[in-house]
Amino acid sequence: MDSKIAICPGSFDPITVGHLDIIMRAAKLFDHVVVAVMSNDSKKCSFSNEERVKLIKDVIEFYHLDNVSVEHSDMLLADYAKEKRATTIVKGLRAVSDFEYEFQMALTNKKLNPDADTVFLTSPAENMFLSSSVVKLIASRGGDISGFVPDVIHDYIKSRLQRKGEN
Question: Which of 39, 88, 102, 114 is deepest in the core (most CB within 10 A)?
Answer without folding.
Answer: 88
